[in-house]
Every structure is written in C-alpha cells, then in structure tokens.
Write a structure and sequence with these properties.
By secondary structure, the protein is mainly alpha-helical. It has 2 domains: about 50 residues, no CATH class; about 60 residues, Cytochrome Bc1 Complex, Chain D, domain 2 (Orthogonal Bundle). It has 5 helices and 2 strands, in the order H-E-E-H-H-H-H. A hairpin with a 5-residue loop joins strand 1 and strand 2. The protein starts with 6 loop residues before the first helix and ends in a 12-residue tail after the last helix.
Length: about 130
C-alpha cells in the first residue's frame, strides 16, 4: 500500500527504469532516431486512514514497528489468530521481509496483537498460564 510521503521512491524507481529509453526511438524501418522524452514529476494525494489502533499494553511497540509498513486498518482487518500464530507472523516480518524490529519489542507486539486480534479459547479448553 502506498502511503502519503512514499510516492518519491516510486517516482525515482520509475525514472531509473525509464532512463535508458530517454532520447531513443525507432522509425518505421527500425532505425534509431533521436526523440525528446521529458520526464516530469507527478504529485499524488493519497487518502489518510482515519482508523487507529485501540489502546493497550504494547501499543507503542506496534506503532513504532508495525505502522511503518502497515496501516491501522490493515492490522485491524486481520483474522483472529492464536498467540503462536501472531508470533510466527512477527518472526516472518523480521526474517523474510527484514522488518527492523528489535528483539526486545517482539513480546510486546505479540502480546498486543493477541489482545486485540487473538483467538478466544473455547469453553473447556485448558489455558496455559
């Protein structure tokens, strides 16, 4: 998801990708002819999300780590998962997607996600303490 302020890297990447094509064109016979390709910057206004994560212990760790890439709405739209599944997701963000999450923040993030989007034990299920 492209967030406000993130358009610049996209435009730079697009410019780099198109740079080799600048000034090159072919006529009907396939011969190279000089042309003028002008790249211009574009400004895109994206909507701001108005959703916020609910208060809770670990919210600061989630705000400081998760919301750099994910919107609050995206987090809130996730399915309810077990604590172990949330730990797996956070670990995946670190190991696969190289999220710069400090090891000491992981327990707080997992606890917060479990508190707001965790699965509730069914009646009669033993609970670990």
């Amino acid at each position: 998801m492209l967030k406000p302020g993130n358009a610049f890297p996209v435009l730079v990447a697009l410019g780099v990708a198109l740079a080799p094509l600048a000034g090159q064109a072919q006529d009907q016979g396939g011969a190279h002819v000089q042309s003028r390709l002008t790249l211009k910057s574009a400004s895109i206004d994206l909507p701001n999300g108005d959703r916020a994560l609910p208060p809770g212990q670990g919210l600061d760790a989630v705000n400081n780590n998760c919301l750099a890439c994910h919107s609050a709405g995206m987090v809130l739209n996730q399915p309810a998962m077990s604590r172990a599944a949330w730990e797996t997701e956070v670990t995946k963000m670190i190991n696969v997607y190289k999220a710069p999450i400090a090891a000491e923040d992981v327990p707080a993030i997992v606890a917060y996600l479990d508190a707001i989007k965790g699965t509730k034990p069914t009646e009669g299920t033993p609970q670990a303490h």
